[in-house]
Amino acid sequence: MNTSRVARLLACLAVLWAGAGPALAQNADKPSVRTPSPTDITGQKGWKDLFDGKSLAGWKPTDFRGGGAVRFDPKFRGGPAIIVEAGDYLSGFNWTKDAPKTNYEIYVEAMKIEGSDFMCGLSFPVGDSYASLILGGWGGTVVGISSLDRHDASENETTKYISFAKDRWYKILMRVTPGRLEAWLDDKKIVDVDIRGKKISMRPGEIEKCVPIGIATFQTTSAFRAIKLRRIEPAK
User: Fold this and answer.
1) Other C-beta atoms lying within 10 Å of the C-beta of residue 134
2) Strand 90-95 and strand 59-61: pairing?
3) Do residues 76 and 223 touch, judged by C-beta distance below 8 A?
4) Are 75 and 113 in contact (CB under 8 A)?
5) Does the pLDDT at position 30 exceed 50?
6) pTM to 2 decimal places
7) CA 74/CA 77 separation, integer angstroms
8) Which residue, 188, 193, 124, is CA-closest to 159?
């Protein structure tokens, strides 16, 4: 490349950088905007507390054979929580009042304290039936919905594998609408399934006692706080 062509190229680059400079500086000064996760419910309206932070009011221990103790702890690691002790198999508690059948969301914060299987099985109404969101089943990592077309969380299109650390709060959001189930774990969407034409049911067994809304663990001790519900507008 001759000297004159090099000079022209450098001149063009100088013009481009000069024009881009103000724009780059402007973008550098502009704060980045983060889209809030659905589990960031701070300031959102319409949420109803299902856990009052003072007692087990509205809840009762689920009558599981060999189930671990369920107790209210007012000062669990700095705040009130419901503690579910590990049992022989299932342990947990369920809601004693009415619950919506569709067009609603449930929000829960859960912590795995000790154990080898699911730290949270959240059961909820789906129309005239019920289903469960399993978090950490089948040895500690399976996540999914039980059951779709009689296939449980370990063997349908919602099956995922996630490891759950101990002593850490997880934010869980379950959304139920007439044609779809959606769920988030912290800022990650973990369930998004079209349920039109599918048979929705609980996994056969004692977990069917977790109605209309229930929270259970399997051979695992967990803590739960900030249990909330809100109705949402039907999709148009």
Assistant:
1) 28
2) antiparallel
3) yes
4) no
5) no
6) 0.84
7) 9
8) 193
Give the three-class secondary structure for 154: coil
Q: Give the tokens for residue 108.
A: 């829960």
- Characterise 93 by phi-psi region: left (phi > 0), alpha (psi -120 to 50), beta (else): beta
Q: The tokens of 234 are what? A: 């039907």
Closest to 133 in 3D by CA, of 148, 141, 144, 125? 144
Cα(191)–Cα(153) distance, rounded to whole angstroms? 11
CB 183 within 8 A of CB 175: yes
Which residue is listed with tokens 């040895």? 139
**Amino acid letter for position 108:** V
Angle at 195 between CA 191 and CA 197, to 5 degrees: 160
CA gap 115, 15 in Å, rounded: 64
pLDDT tens profile 51-93: 999 999 999 999 999 999 999 999 999 999 999 999 999 999 9
pLDDT tens digits along 152-180: 999 999 999 999 999 999 999 999 999 99
CA 136 – CA 193 distance, rounded (Å): 19
12, amino acid identity: C
The Cα 121–Cα 73 span in angstroms is 20
CA atoms within 13 A on the CB side of 23: 5
pLDDT in tens, 129-157: 999 999 999 999 999 999 999 999 999 99
Buried-exposed string 100-119: b where 16+ CB fall within 10 A, e elsewhere: bbeebbbbbbbbbbebebbb
